């Protein structure tokens, strides 16, 4: 266990109460732009999770008893507080994750939107009446689970903290959030902002590693509903552990998302979409929905690659707090090594490194990697199949439609896909045949509130972002009524 030594310690927060790890251990908080230690967070474990569950159960009683309208009013007020602190929270995420400030301002705005959107859906968690005879009928009710455990990934810390708490909260659950050990600061600050507004114990943050704090949350016998955002191997481990307690688990996992480019496109528009879709500007390509696998038609491949490389090379990489910087560093050291290792794998597999692949000139400190494009990528190569989760794009070419579809669907993932063509029928037919939970036609990244998001195949179980997410935090109870 690493004991942090420099900077302030940011304690865990269980409702209004501050909490240190029972074992006294701390984890360092490292600024990825400078590689400096800027503080620490408690390395929580099973004892801390047990305390959080007790607080959450206590707080949950009064929260559940409120009308959904009253809960919605409080979540609306929380969105106002969030907006008031948006700049501070965005700065915190930029320092902690290395994501550019423009992207983190956007995340703070989106987080408020999620709160307001889900607050408005509370009344939809309603039941049915099922007729039988004049004297007998069935009713169904949707009840909260009680305590919900939410375990999140490192790449959009505030957005996940807020957005992924909103649906469980509006239907009367209390939430224990376990943010990534690499980016916990904005979760702790958000919980502080919410502390005197929500009933005590309704929103709780346990910090620590996945194998200790995260696993303890998964295993706790009184946490019956778990939701996870992160990698496939962790998702598997959580499903296995949750099987012991027969828990309801939803999983938002990784992707190796194809962007399919037909020969009839406006090449410049498609190239802009490929770069925006990679989320280089929001999170250095550390995005589950990044357009990391470009399948471009052979007839326009030369023009497309030339324009792609030219655009990628214009991106300004550097101090993510600066307004004119478009891409920051990778969020933490081991992930930086992992991404760099994939670049070496791509080279050794025989792909052509068209641009990037190294530290950008002049940035000797910080986990910076120049945005990278590989061409001449073969479908069998690891960089064509495995999620890199960094600023690395692989370009493959096609000339036969059916082979292209096989290629698009030929990975273990099925999170998102993008189809670029002016042919309306080809676009829809392709969308129908893609094994992906979300398909953009001539678009990238953005989606209206309420559009469900979630993967097929190894990319996950369940949908988030719409009504189904809200209903997924309720359990349905049937009551048979006999009029005597
Ligand atoms: P990760 O799986 O390493 O960690 C995610 C979270 O799980 C962290 O909070 C971690 O501490 C915790 N954890 C780790 N081991 C655990 C265990 N045994 N039990 C319980 N919790 C455990 O993922 P990451 O590196 O933070 O994020 C990158 C991954 O997340 C990528 O694969 C990416 O595609 C995926 N992701 C998916 C979505 C989506 O919406 N589908 C969104 C963002 C990220």
Overview of the molecule:
The chain is an alpha/beta fold and 484 residues long. The chain folds into 2 domains: 12-253 and 459-479, Aldehyde Dehydrogenase, Chain A, domain 1, CATH 3.40.605; 258-449, Aldehyde Dehydrogenase, Chain A, domain 2 (3-Layer(aba) Sandwich). It is 39% helix and 21% strand. The chain contains 15 helices and 22 strands. An 8-stranded mixed β-sheet has the order 2-1-9-8-7-10-11-21, with helices on both faces. Strands 14-15-16-13-12-18-19 form a 7-stranded mixed β-sheet, with helices on both faces. A 3-stranded antiparallel β-sheet has the order 5-6-22. Strand 8, helix 6 (185-194) and strand 9 form a beta-alpha-beta unit. Helix 1 crosses helix 7 (210-219), helix 4 (101-119) packs parallel to helix 5 (157-170) and helix 9 (267-277) crosses helix 11. The longest helix has 20 residues, at 46-65. The radius of gyration is 23 Å and the shape is globular. It starts with 11 loop residues before the first strand and ends with a strand. Residues 151-155, 178, 180-181, 209-211, 214-215, 218, 229-231, 234, 237-238, 252-255, 288, 387, 389, 415, 455, 460 line the site of nicotinamide-adenine-dinucleotide. Nicotinamide-adenine-dinucleotide (NAD) binds next to helix 7 and helix 8.
């Amino acid at each position: 266990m690493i004991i942090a030594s420099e900077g302030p310690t940011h304690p865990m927060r269980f409702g209004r109460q501050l909490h240190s790890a029972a074992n006294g251990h701390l984890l360092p908080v490292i600024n990825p732009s400078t590689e400096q230690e800027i503080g620490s967070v408690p390395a929580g474990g099973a004892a801390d999770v047990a305390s959080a569950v007790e607080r959450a159960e206590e707080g949950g009683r009064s929260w559940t008893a409120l009308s959904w309208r009253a809960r919605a009013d409080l979540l609306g007020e929380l969105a106002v507080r969030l907006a008031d602190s948006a700049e501070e929270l965005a700065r915190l995420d930029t320092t902690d994750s290395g994501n550019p400030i423009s992207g983190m301002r956007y995340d703070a705005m989106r987080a408020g939107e999620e709160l307001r959107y889900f607050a408005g859906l509370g009344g939809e968690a309603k039941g049915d009446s099922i007729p039988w005879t004049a004297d007998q009928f069935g009713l169904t009710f949707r009840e909260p689970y009680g305590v919900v455990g939410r375990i999140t990934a490192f790449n959009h810390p505030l957005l996940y903290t807020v957005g992924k708490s909103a649906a469980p909260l509006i239907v009367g659950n209390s939430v224990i959030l376990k943010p990534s050990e690499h980016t916990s600061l904005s979760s702790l600050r958000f919980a502080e902002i919410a502390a005197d507004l929500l009933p005590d114990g309704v929103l709780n943050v346990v910090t620590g590693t996945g194998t200790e704090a995260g696993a303890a949350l998964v295993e706790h016998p009184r946490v019956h509903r778990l939701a996870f955002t992160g990698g496939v191997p962790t998702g598997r481990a959580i499903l296995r552990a949750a099987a012991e307690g027969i828990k309801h688990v939803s999983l938002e996992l990784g992707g190796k998302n194809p962007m399919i480019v037909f020969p009839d496109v406006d090449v410049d528009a498609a190239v802009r979409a490929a770069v925006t879709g990679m989320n280089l500007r929001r999170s250095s390509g550390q995005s589950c929905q990044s357009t990391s696998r470009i399948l471009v038609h052979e007839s326009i491949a030369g023009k497309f690659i030339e324009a792609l490389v030219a655009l990628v090379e214009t991106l300004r990489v550097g101090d993510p707090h600066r307004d004119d910087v478009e891409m920051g560093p990778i969020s933490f050291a081991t992930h930086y090594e992992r991404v760099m290792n994939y670049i070496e794998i791509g080279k050794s597999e025989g792909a052509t490194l068209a641009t990037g692949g190294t530290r950008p000139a002049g940035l000797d400190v910080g986990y910076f990697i120049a945005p990278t494009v590989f061409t001449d990528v073969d479908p069998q190569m690891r960089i064509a199949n495995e999620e890199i989760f960094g600023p690395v794009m692989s370009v493959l070419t096609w000339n036969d439609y059916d082979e292209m579809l096989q290629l698009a669907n030929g990975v273990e993932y099925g999170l998102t896909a993008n189809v670029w063509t002016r042919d309306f029928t080809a676009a829809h037919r392709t969308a129908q045949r893609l094994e992906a939970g979300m398909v953009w036609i001539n678009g990238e990244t953005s989606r209206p509130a309420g559009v469900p998001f979630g993967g097929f195949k190894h990319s996950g179980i369940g949908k988030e972002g719409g009504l189904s997410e809200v209903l997924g935090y309720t359990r349905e109870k049937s009551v048979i009524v006999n009029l005597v």
